[in-house]
Amino acid sequence: MPRRLPPLILLPPSEGKAAGGRGAPYAAGSLVAPELDGDRAAVVAALRRAMRSGEAARAALLGVKGAALAAATAADRAVLEAPTLPAIERYTGVLYGALDHATLPVRERRRAAAQVRILSGLWGVVGPLDPIPDYKCKMGATLPGLGKLSTWWRPRLGPVLDAAAAGRTVWNLLPQEHAAAWPGPRRSGGPGGPGGPGGPTVELTVRFFDEVRRRGTTDLVAVSHWNKLLKGALVRHVLATQLDDPDGLTGWVHPLGYRYVPELTTAAPSGALALSFVKPLAP
After folding, report:
1. What is the DSSP string of 218-272?
2. Element (H, E) at 205
3. Helices and strands, number each (H, E), in the chain
4. String of b and e for 205-238 (b: at least 16 CB within 10 Å)?
5. Spacing of C-alpha 237 from chain mean position
6. Over the stretch 66-109, which tens digit does the pLDDT of each residue have?
7. For residue 95, which phi and psi values (nearest 5 degrees)?
8. What are the backbone angles phi and psi of residue 147, rounded to the nearest 5°?
9. d(C-alpha 255, C-alpha 233), whole Å
């Protein structure tokens, strides 16, 4: 059996972003997958043109209003001149708070740099250490001249992410909006996806459930609001253990009490396995 390659972890960016920066402005060649630089330039140009639109159009595009709209507009207009931060510091949402990259041991931080990729409406894909400016641009946004960004990026990200995923276990932690930009490993290599030095590609997604009591019976309710928070701790665990098989989750207890339940695993038509974590009722 070939030795499997390290896992690949796919994350969304966060709505919350740190302002300012200490690095030089964005430059071509400074992000992972430099072959996407021409595509990035096209999206940046379309976004900056859109920032010349009226307030109502900008509010609809960016999904904010008032002071938040003014700040987002200013950031997008200055996106090529603004200072940068590493993506892992720029993104400040709950997933990134739970991941808490700064507290990872040095070995895990090195692994994160090589194994984590973040799908972005503006940049396509970035690595944790890639220097990016403050910006506001959702993957689900529709930019004049380009259309919906998840659809626009899909054929461009496909070859890049397919190559990165080949022969690896892919922990696909993308929400639907970002998953639309990459349909998962191409299935040309058989049921497990394209092959590589580490064997067939394995794609894993995750779901979290709470046990609840209803009318005397126990039901499972999917966690939605705290889903990103729960994924952050899972990323830390994968970076520490290099898990490439769901069986390795047996016995692991999420810091918030969720446990992997193998019998709830389901397979999507694409071949991806959906793993389920359940928080049992308190005794």
Report:
1. EEEEE--TTHHHHHHHHHHHHHHH---SGGGGTT-B-TTS-EE-GGG-EE-TTS-
2. strand 202-214
3. 9, 15
4. bbbbbbeeeeeeeeebeebeeebbbbbbbbbbeb
5. 16
6. 999 999 999 999 999 999 999 999 999 999 999 999 999 999 99
7. -60, -45
8. 90, -160
9. 7
**Can you read off the two tokens belonging to residue 135?**
């910006």
Name residues whose C-beta falls within 8 Å of residue 71's C-beta, 6 or more positions apart in sequence: none
| Strand-strand pairing, 259-260 and 273-279 | antiparallel
Residue type, 138: K
The answer to whether the beta carbons of residues 193 and 200 sit under 8 Å apart is yes
How many CB atoms sit inside 10 A of residue 39's CB? 19
Q: Which two tokens stand for residue 278?
A: 């359940």
pTM over 0.90: yes
Query: CB-based burial of residue 83 (10 Å sphere; 0-12 exposed, 13-18 middle, 19+ buried)?
Result: middle
Place of tokens 């300012």: 20
Sequence letter at residue 42:
A
- Confirm if 92 and 14 have CB atoms less than 8 A apart: yes
DSSP secondary structure letters along 101-142: GGGS-HHHHHHHHHHEEEEETTTEEE-TT-EEE-----TT-E
Reported as a single tens digit per residue, the pLDDT across 216-261 is: 788 999 998 788 999 999 999 999 999 999 999 999 999 999 999 9
Q: Hey, what are 126's tokens?
A: 């970035």
Give the distance, in angstroms, between the CA of residue 65 and the centroid of all CA atoms in the same chain: 25
Q: How many other CB atoms sit within 10 Å of the CB of residue 279?
A: 20
Distance CA 254, CA 140 (A): 30
